[in-house]
Amino acid sequence: MPNWQSVRSRVEYGAGALEALSRMVPSNLQAGAIILMLARGSAPDWVTADGIIAPPITISRSMSVNSIAASLMRPFETIRRHVQWLVDEGFVIRVPDGVALANVGPRCDLLADYVRNRHDSFLRLVADLVAAEDMLERPPRVEVRPISTIQILTAAFDLDLAPFESNRSLLANLELTTVYSAIAMAGTRAVQADPILSARYRHQRTPDELRQPVSLRFVAERFNLSYATVWRHAHKLMADGLVTRLGNKGWVVRMDDLHQEELLRASQAYFRRLRRIMRTLIFEGFDPYAPSVVRRC
User: Fold this and answer.
1) Which of 120, 184, 220, 285 is the right S-S partner for 227, CB 3.0 to 4.6 Å?
2) What would the pLDDT profile of 56-66 be if each residue is shown by its tens digit?
């Protein structure tokens, strides 16, 4: 039986990952996926010797456009065009071996805020999964050790990349996915935020009467998308039977909308990736029930 309290936490985390990207590059979410890929590869550069997340003084890790295109399973020319846009906008700089997140200029502080956001969001997800009683137990033979900021960042970015690796069409429909995630998250947020209701519906789907409809205006503002874009994708989702419009009340993902096989496969793949990430952290000494994170490399 699915742990729906855990599922709601994962939906909220995934929507938060898309929101963090959309706030940086609202007009180009595919470029946001490139930022995510570069952040995953350069995470150690963005952590100081004493464990503080900050723009690096020097860059030691970069990626070629070819490797980014291969990792994201997108045509080289498409990725090259988005990389050039990121360079022009100051998010990315060119280095001898390829490209890297900008460590100088007006965007570097925004990038550092993004990296901090993913670090802190992952730790909140761990706490939510513990509260949902859906966390792997630490084997008795594994010694508990303080975990580093870099290890948490690596885990966070690995999880953020999971949907792109399990769904090859996601990048082509990233705005559509963002609109769906926003509606799904907002609908169950009130239940998830209430410890009593959240526990009550741990092994039951959130009933329709407790799902709160959300306006498209709210989605557009929160995820930095144009209203016309959100409106277009919401109607596409409704036509596909993935969301429901409740008149002037707004939009919601109802229980009858949760039948799509593609959604179930994506959710299962995401959960398997999360399990593998948590298992790795736990074997490295991380105790999710009493996390001890030292801010050092």
Assistant:
1) 220
2) 999 999 999 99
How far is residue 167's CA from residue 174's CA, in Å, rounded to a whole number? Answer: 11
* C-alpha dihedral sign at 167, 173, 177, 178: positive
Tokens of 283: 């074997």
Helix runs in 25-148, H state only: 29-42, 65-72, 76-89, 108-131
Q: If you average pLDDT over residues 116-130, what whole number do you get?
A: 95
Number of neighbouring beta carbons within 10 Å of residue 157: 23
- Coil, strand or helix: which one is 99? strand
Asked if pLDDT for residue 245 goes beyond 70, the answer is yes
Give the H/E segment covering residue 95.
Answer: strand 92-95
Task: Give residues with Cβ within 8 angstroms of 101, minimum separation 6.
Answer: 35, 38, 39, 42, 46, 91, 92, 93, 108, 111
3-class secondary structure per residue, 124-152:
HHHHHHHHCCCCCCCCCCCCCCCEEHHHH
CB distance 227 to 25 below 8 Å: no
Q: Which amino acid is located at 35 in the chain? A: I
Helix, strand, coil percent values for the chain (each to nearest 5): 60, 5, 30
